[in-house]
Amino acid sequence: MVDAPPLSAPALMQDPAFAAALRLCGAAPLILPGGAMILRRRILGLPILMLPRMAPPRDLNEQLAAAGLARLPLILSPAHPCPLPRALRLRAAQQIALLDLGTDPERRIARLHPKWRNQWRKARRAELRLSHGPMPADPHHPLLLTEALQQRQRGYAGWPLALTRAFAAVAPAQTRLFTARRGQRVVAQMLFLRHGTGASYHIGHSFPEGRRFHAHNLLLMTACDWLAAEGHETLDLGLLHSATPGLNRFKLRSGARACATGGTWLRWHPLARRRCP
User: Fold this and answer.
1) Domains of the chain, start order
2) Are 265 and 87 in contact, with CB atoms under 8 Å apart?
3) Is 1 helix (H, G, I), strand (E, B) or coil?
4) How far apart, in whole angstroms, are the C-alpha atoms of residue 224 and residue 216?
């Protein structure tokens, strides 16, 4: 994996729809005067603040002081590397797979790895019927039930499913669910969330028949074409994990670039005099 210069797009976790979904779930995010969204959590009973997926504004301390929050621990997790003076690093930068949608379909096809391109062509020849539309805010939607089961079986944690439902409820137009069927059977699905000029892959599943016909390759290329036509410039395919090399290959062979995040940092007034890298 090779780092590439980051592509610019507003972050999903700084989108107003994300804040509205949190409120629907009972959370109380703080929107600062400059527009940055601060999350408030408790860890071991200690109140903390979190600024997710954006570089801190120059006057962040002043904005927090005006809200009476300047002395609370603040966790920073910028989307891209940026200077963070007087902050203690908690976790090194991770990598995400980012697709550039700002090119024509032929150039997107040219970027595909040959094996990935062959799988996509095989899926195009299969008897797959595609459809897409907004994600229903239904707690019993099969995609959400399948995701919940897989999280339990594989022991990973993504967004709480209640938060996904809340996002679909408050901003249905910012969701897009792509479905592949063979006959009447759903064989694969991919859900994308839209935010400004960017979009993010959220969750998806492929059943054995879908994997046999490489349905996710076809769904992803179809989603890229639709998102680009709607004015989106980038598609975030999510983190690249060392524990999932097969998934990493799928993402990067689709033409995505590996881009470094800014890591995770702690800024807190007792550490203010400590010199941190």
Assistant:
1) 12-93+261-271 (no CATH), 96-259 (3.40.630.30)
2) yes
3) coil
4) 12
Instruction: From 199, 273, 216, 204, select the one nearest 250 (Cα to Cα).
Output: 216
pLDDT digits (tens, 9 = 90+) for 215-260: 999 999 999 999 999 999 999 999 999 889 999 999 999 999 999 9
Provide the greatest CA pair distance for the chain: 65
d(CA 165, CA 159): 10
In this structure, how many other beta carbons lie within 10 angstroms of the beta carbon of residue 3?
Answer: 12
Residue pointed to by tokens 């949608």 = 101
Nearest in space to 51 (alpha carbons), one of 31, 27, 71, 33: 31
Q: pTM (2 decimals)?
A: 0.92
Instruction: Give the sheet arrangement for strand 185-195, strand by strand.
Output: 129-133, 175-182, 185-195, 198-206, 234-239, 95-100, 257-260
